[in-house]
Write a structure and sequence with these properties.
The chain is α/β, with parallel strands linked by helices. It has five helices and five strands. 29% of the residues are buried. Pfam families: Response_reg (PF00072).
Length: 153
Amino acid sequence: MTAAIPLLKVLVVEDDPGDVALVESAFAEHSIISDLHHVADGVDALAFLRHEGVFADVPRPDLILLDLNMPRVDGRQVLTIIKNDEALRSIPTIVFTTSASDSDVLSSYDAQANAYVTKPINLDDYERVVIEIRNFFGHTVSLPSRLSDGQST
């Protein structure tokens, strides 16, 4: 008998409603057991991660999908803040953006991104990439939030 796969809690930090819908659709169409949360900018992402204000009762995500180009506080700043915060740095953070700029790739890895994925233009490719990310982090890797020492909830 196969062990049940735990629910994957994902924070999608994305200002484009169309991209959010594509991520949600890719997860839903493949019966992926996930708890997706969405915020539209870096200010709300940080409030979510710190459980501030309206985000006081949200779960700690197992994975963050982070766009770079957003209003108020952009993804570059959010990534740097997350990876410099002892309480947040262990959350795998995937930069998921339209930018294929070498400087964005390099600066994201310098800021300790766990991966950098350029969003495909083709809808089928977009869905495939989202599913690959979800399957890798949902099935293959060991996530800090699933360790028995209870360091993450």
